[in-house]
Design brief:
By secondary structure, this protein is mainly beta. It has 1 helix and 11 strands. The chain has one domain: Jelly Rolls, CATH 2.60.120.
Amino acid sequence: MHRHLRTAIVTVLTVGAILLGTGGRAVASSSWVFDDGFEGSTTAWYGDCEGCGYRCPAYVTCDPAYVSSYAPSAQTGTHSAVIGSTAGTPGAWRSFGRRVRIPADAVLCSMRVAIRSSTNDATVNVEVIGTSSWTYETIRTYHLTNTTYANFSAGSWTPGPRDVTIRLAVLGEGGVGVVYADDFRVACVW
């Protein structure tokens, strides 16, 4: 008898909750993802630098920033970015980035990129920059010791401007700084 009473009470409460609601506000959540692994058009990507070519021998490319089609260098697919900075030049850096338009309703975004160092001594910034003001939305600095791909995050930010630049900068600190990057991802929720 107790079992039938318990079943009846659970049934009444369940039907009541369905018909009347639970009293809490329903919140819809959606997400948006931008992925770029350099497999399509790469014309949106561009390089920038400070102190490039310092003490660079003639006919040598010291500060590369380009998309390579050498498949063994990629994490996924057949293409990756190659970015380098003049070794040991304080204040020098080389970056590779592109603009991304964030959805208007986004309330929180994050960016990550897969990176591997060609040596065990490179320092990088993973950056998101407000394109119109050219100020950082978020930035994180990492000293790489990995020669295999690993994901590195710029962190999360609350979007203000919809147009941002996602960028990886190799800093001219501490030694040979050449890295491979692949699979940039920006993810937002609203």
